[in-house]
Every structure is written in structure tokens, then in C-alpha cells.
Amino acid sequence: xxxxxxxxxxxxxxxxxxxxxxxxxxxxxxxxxxxxxxxxxxxxxxxxxxxxxxxxxxxxxxxxxxxxxxxxxxxxxxxxxxxxxxxxxxxxxxxxxxxxxxxxxxxxxxxxxxxxxxxxxxxxxxxxxxxxxxxxxxxxxxxxxxxxxxxxxxxxxxxxxxxxxxxxxxx
Length: 171
Known about the structure:
By secondary structure, the protein is mainly beta. It contains 3 helices and 12 strands, in the order βββββαβαββββββα. The chain has helices at 74-78, 102-105, 166-169; strands at 7-17, 22-27, 40-45, 48-60, 63-68, 84-88, 109-112, 115-126, 129-136, 139-144, 150-154, 159-162. The strands form 2 sheets. It has a 6-stranded antiparallel barrel with strand order 1-2-5-4-3-6. The protein has a 6-stranded mixed β-sheet with strand order 10-9-8-7-12-11, with no helix packed on it. Strand 9 and strand 10 form a beta hairpin. The model has no long low-confidence stretch (mean pLDDT 91).
């Protein structure tokens, strides 16, 4: 999910819907309805970024369906599968005090009771509580993103201070 930090990732293209070039997007945002407010998106594939104007948007089951200008058929749409959907960071929603963009957490070191435990490598959105994946070499820890385990998340300082019991780490 890395980009040049001017974009925020809000979705990932899963595939196509129908034969007219409509793309199916997995929303990576708490409010899929926010896609209705967008005029354009940036599709990210590796280091390549391409801007597209949205011509139509609708919600379907748990996904967002989009028609993009210049994508006229199923073959064009299939070529976009797997790309991440980004928008300029200034269009991102405002976050509450203890909320963070996932991409801002990725790569942050986690200090458990003052000792470096590892780095955040993924955030799994599992219903009501996110789960942070912390990787240290070959060890991987999955810890619920709850305030009782994570004392302070300081994105600007690039550090997370935690008090995670060994019982949680052993799971």
C-alpha cells in the first residue's frame, strides 16, 4: 500500500462487473458511500499512477461499482484488476483523535514495554476491532487494536508504545 504519500488508498479493484467496463472495487474505507462524492480517482499499479474520471458509481453488496472514463468494455476493465484506488490526501475524511489511516501505521515500530517488538506490517479489518500484524524477523504477532494493548500511537514521531501481555503474543 505504499505510494508517494500524497495519496490515500481507499480501495482495491477486485475485477469486473458485466460486459460494459464496470469495475468492482473492494472499499478499504469505513464508509463506502464516500465514493459517491468523488469525481476522479487515481489507480496505482506498482510505481505507476493513472488518473481516471468517474462517470458512474453505485454500491453492490459489499463492493463499489464504478464506470471510469476511457474504460469502455470488459477487456479494458479486466486490465485494471488488482490496482489500488487512491485519492489525494486532502480529500480524505477527517479522523477522530484515536483514529489513523492504515497506510500511516504500516512500517511503524512497536515497542512493547520499552523493548522493540517489531513493525506493523498489516492491519486486518475484522468486523468491530481491527487487528494489527506485527512482524519481527520470522515471528508474526496478531494483536487486537485496542487501547488496553496500545498505549500511544504517535504517527508523527514514528512510534507505537504498547503493553501487550505475553499470553496475547503467544496466541
